Amino acid sequence: MTPRSVLPSPRRLAALGAAAVVLAATACTSGGGDEGDLTGSAEAAELAIAPEDGAETVAPDAPITVSAENGEITDVVVEQAAPEGESKADTSMTGSLNKEKSEWSSDWTLTPGTDVTVTAVAENADGEETEAVSRFTVEPSVEGQRLEVKTDTRERQLLDGQTVGVGMPVVIDFDMPVENKDRVEAAMDVVSEKPTEGAWNWFGDKRAVFRPKEYWEPHQKVTVDLNLAGVQASDGVYGVENSSIEFEVGREQLVEIDNDEHHMTVERDGEKLKEFPVSLGQNTQHSYITRSGVHLVMEKHTNYRMSNDTLGVSKDDPNYYEEVVDFAVRISDSGEFLHSAPWNGMLGEANTSHGCVNMAVSDSQWIYDESLPGDPVDIVNSGREMEVDNGWGFWVRDWDTWLEKSATGEPTDTGSSGTPGSPHGEPHKGGGKDEGDGAEEASGQDSDEGGA
């Protein structure tokens, strides 16, 4: 990868001064100029770089800092190369200058086990350049203490190049618990073509979820840069790899379903597109009632088996059911689907299902064909509330609460690169942990195979 010289990152300027000064005392320095020159020309610029030249045990989360006296920093290039014999690709590093251009600090942490070369240039008032170089080695990661992003969570992962609906969350699952949630949040950078505010929340210690304040604006690209290499997730546990995901937000399709009216409305880009008669969950017992609140399209299936035998209901039980449906669109983890139900003669008239939204076959096929993952499905008037951790129920949490539960406690502006907080920061024990609102009800009352 070609090394990138630094340009200022506006969202990081304010926080850099203190970090740059901390390590300057142990820095590699370089200066120049003719001490015998008595003509009154400007003093030569002097540079200090930390970590110092020759260091062999640099922690992966140590910041790189550059400071200048008698001049302004004009260029900093950081090259990270794997030790000889390893095949890991070279990695570049960006950083940010303060307003005076006298201090520079790296934006992200260092890849474990790399050899790093920092080359800095400064100019004095006469435009004369001074260059300094520091070469050092980053400590390698330890087997069993390497944080990685999981990629095997069913069909729920965002795929590079995928087109999604306007409610799509960014869900990141880790293979190990994260204790320093604020550091990890600060390392995950979300940038959209149409700027908005957004923030991360945590559901347990292994799942981080990003959503914007409002739905994404349609027809735009969003990039997620996971700058996790070198981030200390917990004591002695470091991220080992950076990765990136780019996805496309497609058209805005919004579905509203009224429990009382047994009616579904589909709007696309502000225009009413379709209306369908439906039947929701009967109220003969609480577990059959379809939840109110914003759901999201999660998965789509054809010829999908639905049964409550996964809850231990035997075939001899009068409440037992089993159906194979032609088209099924999952909208929760507790078994709620939009699906075909040719056996239901009460569409548009009464709620008779076990929690799903029943539809005519042709209508359910249309929904199946026209739905994208992340399309909002807002169900109203059922009297039973959707849980925030039931599948992708993240939109039922209001923005103020969502922001409060972020480990950094600050929104990020997706209009440019940079995040609140710092991946180099002090450990933030337990910050942002979500206790799993409604988890017991979501996971225990309804079959994951669907409430037909």
Key phrases:
5 helices; Immunoglobulin-like; 5-stranded antiparallel β-sheet; L,D-transpeptidase catalytic domain-like; 5-stranded mixed β-sheet; single chain; disordered N terminus
Provide structural commentary:
- The protein is built from five helices and 29 strands.
- It starts with 15 loop residues before the first helix and ends in an 8-residue tail after the last helix.
- The longest helix is centred in the C-terminal third of the chain and has 10 residues, at 361-370.
- Strands 1-2-3-7-6 form a five-stranded antiparallel β-sheet, with helices on one face. A five-stranded mixed β-sheet has the order 22-21-20-28-23, with no helix packed on it. The protein has a four-stranded antiparallel β-sheet with strand order 5-4-8-9, with no helix packed on it.
- It has three domains: 10-137, Immunoglobulin-like (Sandwich), CATH 2.60.40.3780; 146-251 and 397-432, Sandwich (Immunoglobulin-like), CATH 2.60.40.3710; 253-391, L,D-transpeptidase catalytic domain-like.
- The chain has 452 residues and is mainly beta.
- Residues 80-111, 405-452 are annotated as: Disordered.
